[in-house]
């Protein structure tokens, strides 16, 4: 159990590759933090710096207020699970799990080792495999052994780097649920790395969205989904991806409209209030509309956009319709199947003309240059920049 604090942490690899820029994060004791982002954004590097497997180029990492920069991994009281399991093929499952305990000095008693390994095996449901070698296990079972091996030791911080990425989709779902249960049983601080936004959303108390070595946003799953700070987060979180395209925001008589593809859709509710509060005027914007917020209209009107259906993906409980506007902008809409008549569903074939509009209460607006949200602004940020400029003068 520990609070983990990263202050201005930077990683420069040989050849002047800056993998992590100025990373600041305060992880609470027993919190489950997920680092998520595309390949190469610095997730593993940051995790490995916390583990002590990678030198920190600048900044400090503290566990419970103690700087650990110069502590060896073995002295940091961390446990780590890697993507490729790294099990010893010639050892039994029991011996694989007992391995970290046998390294502890002063020596741990056989009884204690037996007790810890069998308890972890029980929690993970692998008791019956304890005498087998890893090659006689399925991928999911091996993954559980790898997690078990990390669990047996007392640790302050549990670190996991893409532990489920070798598993097939079904097993990944199942293991995800098991990690949620595991987390309840071993009440410790977790830092979990994944490139999968679903894993991040379902596991994290808070999610750290990263890109090119920078933090794009830190927040609860709800915050990053409902209130993305920038276009990157908006597009990265949520599946299928948010529809985004350039259009105009128009302020007329104190009311806001957007004018995508010739339609005129009013902005209503809290989003309109936020635009007004932030002093936003008529301007070109990037509009963001999640596929679940695109609505099929019964008939054309001033608020609708004509589209042509390209692909109809049947997902079971919903359809994903891939549409093309008259100027060839692709859009995706998610339609719950239970709202559709069989007759209408049969008509949803390639080339079908449809009319859509957007839920006016849940649209997102981004600056075309900075790609920052026009709704959710870090209010302190510009003030600090101004101060610096003044000081510089
Ligand atoms: N030993 C190294 N030497 C030089 N550059 C490195 C080294 N390790 C990683 N990098 C670079 O640092 C950046 C971040 O790598 P990192 O492994 O942290 O990314 P990641 O977010 O974990 O990606 P992935 O999802 O593919 O695992 C990448 O550009 C990578 O090429
Ligand atoms: Mg990685």
Structural commentary:
By secondary structure, the chain is of the alpha+beta class. It folds into two domains: 230 residues, P-loop containing nucleotide triphosphate hydrolases (Rossmann fold, 3-Layer(aba) Sandwich); 129 residues, Beta Barrel (OB fold (Dihydrolipoamide Acetyltransferase, E2P)). It has a six-stranded mixed beta sheet, with helices on both faces. The chain has a five-stranded antiparallel beta sheet with strand order 13-12-11-14-20. A hairpin with a 6-residue loop joins strand 12 and strand 13. Helix 2 packs across helix 3 and helix 2 runs parallel beside helix 4. The C terminus is likely disordered. Bound molecules: adenosine-5'-triphosphate and magnesium ion. The site of adenosine-5'-triphosphate has 13 residues, from strand 2 and helix 1.
CATH class of the largest domain: Alpha Beta
N-to-C CA distance: 47 Å
Number of contiguous helices: 11
C-alpha-based Rg, rounded: 25 Å
Query: What order do the strands of the largest sheet run in, or round the barrel if closed?
Result: 6-7-8-3-9-10
CATH superfamily of the largest domain: P-loop containing nucleotide triphosphate hydrolases
What is the assembly state of the chains in this entry? single chain
Q: Report on the biggest sheet.
A: 6 strands, mixed
Task: Write down the overall mean pLDDT.
Answer: 92
Number of strands: 20
Query: Residue ranges: pLDDT <50 for 5 or more in a row?
Result: 381-393
Number of structural domains = 2
Proportion in helices? 25-40%
CATH architecture of the largest domain: 3-Layer(aba) Sandwich
Helix/strand-derived category reads alpha+beta
**Bound small-molecule species:** adenosine-5'-triphosphate, magnesium ion
The fraction of residues assigned to DSSP E strands is 25-35%
Dominant shape: globular
CATH-defined topology of the largest domain: Rossmann fold
């Amino acid at each position: 159990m520990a609070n983990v604090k990263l202050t201005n942490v930077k990683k420069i690899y040989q050849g002047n590759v800056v993998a992590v820029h100025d990373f600041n994060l305060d992880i609470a004791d027993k919190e489950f933090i997920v680092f998520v982002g595309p390949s190469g954004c610095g997730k593993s590097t940051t995790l490995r710096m916390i583990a002590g497997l990678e030198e920190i180029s600048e900044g400090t990492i503290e566990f419970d207020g103690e700087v650990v920069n110069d502590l060896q991994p073995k002295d940091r009281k961390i446990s780590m699970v890697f993507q490729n399991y790294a099990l010893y093929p010639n050892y039994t499952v029991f011996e694989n799990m007992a391995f970290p305990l046998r390294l502890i000095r002063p020596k741990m008693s056989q009884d204690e080792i037996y007790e810890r390994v069998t308890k972890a095996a029980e929690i993970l449901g692998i008791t019956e495999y304890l005498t087998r070698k890893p090659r006689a296990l399925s991928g999911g079972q091996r993954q559980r052994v790898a997690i078990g091996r990390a669990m047996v030791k007392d640790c302050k911080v549990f670190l996991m780097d893409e532990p489920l990425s070798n598993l097939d989709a079904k097993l990944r779902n199942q293991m995800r649920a098991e990690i949620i249960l595991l987390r309840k049983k071993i009440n410790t601080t977790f830092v979990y790395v994944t490139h999968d936004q679903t894993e991040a959303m379902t596991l994290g108390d808070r999610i750290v969205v990263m890109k090119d070595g920078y933090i794009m946003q830190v927040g609860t799953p709800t915050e990053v989904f409902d209130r993305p700070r920038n276009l990157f987060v908006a597009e990265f979180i949520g599946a299928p991806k948010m529809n985004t395209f350039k259009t105009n925001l128009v302020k007329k008589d104190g009311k806001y409209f957007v004018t995508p593809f010739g339609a005129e859709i009013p902005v209503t509710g809290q989003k309109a209030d936020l635009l007004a509060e932030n002093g936003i005027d008529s301007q070109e914007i990037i509009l963001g509309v999640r596929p679940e917020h695109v609505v099929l209209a019964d008939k054309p009107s001033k608020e609708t956009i004509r589209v042509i259906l390209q692909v109809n993906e049947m997902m079971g409980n919903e359809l994903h319709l891939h549409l093309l506007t008259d100027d060839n902008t692709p859009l995706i809409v998610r339609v719950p199947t239970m709202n559709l008549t069989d007759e209408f569903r049969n008509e949803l074939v390639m080339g079908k003309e449809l009319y859509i509009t957007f839920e006016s209460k849940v649209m997102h607006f981004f600056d075309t240059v900075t790609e920052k949200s026009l709704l959710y602004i870090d209010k302190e940020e510009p003030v600090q920049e101004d101060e610096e400029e003044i000081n510089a003068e």
